[in-house]
Amino acid sequence: MSRVSPLAALQRDNARCRRCLEAGFPIVPPPVFEGHAGQRAYLFGLAPGRVEADTGRPWQGRAGRTLRRWLQLDEETFFARFYCASVTRCFPGPSPGGRGDRRATPTEEALCAPWREAELRLLRPALVVTVGLAAAQQLLRVPRLTDAVGKSFLLDDAVAVPLPHPSGASGWLNDATNRARLGKALTHVRRELARGGVT
To answer: Are 22 and 88 in contact (CB under 8 A)?
Structure first.
């Protein structure tokens, strides 16, 4: 009789989660995340977009392609290295203004937080990469990207490296100083990925 690992049990429960939907939020389930036991690098973004909701796999749109280009990883290696999760796991739906995706509310983020907490407890990653300000605020409590990108932080026993979001919707990378911050951050990530403990 086979036993389900704690992480597999958590993922099974997460895949069935309908907390936000039952609370009346206009999300589009199912939850989107990907990873397996033994991964020592944890990638934490904001939320899946429409493409991710349609495919059921994180980082499938243009932002994902940009992120992999930044990290100099092909898609197979990217998913082999990183456990991919996000502040909220379901596509939040389109923005009421008609441009981009809706930003999940603090209540939705709180309803999703236990999944992240359990993943980090079970995985005990050596490297945590946050993507975008919301993810960095959640895990590292940084107030602005300019205070965080280009630096490394400690998160329990992990090295944490914040990145800006690669969506292109923000003008943050239009500034040359911020592009230099990104270059520094990517050097930190590649250095940590090259270490023996992060596979």
So the answer is: no
Q: Is 118 in a helix, a strand, or coil? A: helix
Q: Residue 167: pLDDT above 90?
A: no
Over the stretch 109-119, which tens digit does the pLDDT of each residue have? Answer: 999 999 999 99
Query: pTM (2 decimals)?
Result: 0.94
- Angstrom CA distances, 164 to 80, 153, 178, stand at 22, 15, 9
Quick: pLDDT tens for 133-150.
Answer: 999 999 999 999 999 999
SS3 43: strand
**Whole-number average pLDDT of the chain:** 94
Please state the domain extents for the chain.
6-194
Sheet containing 82-86, strands listed edge to edge, beginning at the edge strand earlier in sequence: 82-86, 41-45, 127-131, 158-163, 153-155
Domain 6-194, CATH: 3.40.470.10
The C-alpha angle 133, 121, 126, rounded to 5 degrees, equals 65
Q: At what angle do helices 6-15 and 106-123 cross, to 10 degrees?
A: 160
Residue 74 is encoded by which pair of tokens? 């092909």
* Mean pLDDT for the stretch of residues 70-79: 97
Query: Tokens 């023996």, residue?
Result: 196
* Structure-token pair, residue 35: 């990873």
Length of the chain as a residue count: 199
